[in-house]
Amino acid sequence: MKLYETMFILKPTLVEEEIKTRLEFFKEVITKNGGEIETCLDMGMRNLAYEIKKNKRGYYFVIYFKAKPSLILELERNYRINEEILRFIVIKYENKKEQKAWQSLVNKANNKPEPKPTKAKKEEVATQPKEQDSTESK
């Protein structure tokens, strides 16, 4: 089985229930055709880089999965016939370096990495008084 990532953007006019049914539909397409879903990442509503079909925003989803190459044609066919999909992409991870990156992305999506330190800690360090050098001449 090959490693894949697919991202698709749903229309912003859909209600939460419709969004969930669309997501479940595409997950089902993957699993019914022999694919194994590793994780699904809900990226939420975001602004689009440019207007697509008179929409300025879209609801983003990313699915990381393992599958046979024949599944991709079926998945793309379903994306194309669904009117609620604004854009989609399927990425294949082939060589070992890419596969390692794929695994890293899956781990990040599953574990939710800790946030980076805030700027407040850096400011505290900057406001502390400097120690005077004992070798200074008086």
Automatic annotation (TrEMBL):
Compositionally skewed regions (Basic and acidic residues) per UniProt: 111-138
Function: Binds together with bS18 to 16S ribosomal RNA.
Region (Disordered): 104-138
Protein name: Small ribosomal subunit protein bS6
One GO CC term, this protein: cytosolic small ribosomal subunit
Signal in keyword set: no
Similarity remark: Belongs to the bacterial ribosomal protein bS6 family.
HAMAP family: Ribosomal_bS6
Gene from which the chain derives: rpsF
Biological source species: Helicobacter japonicus
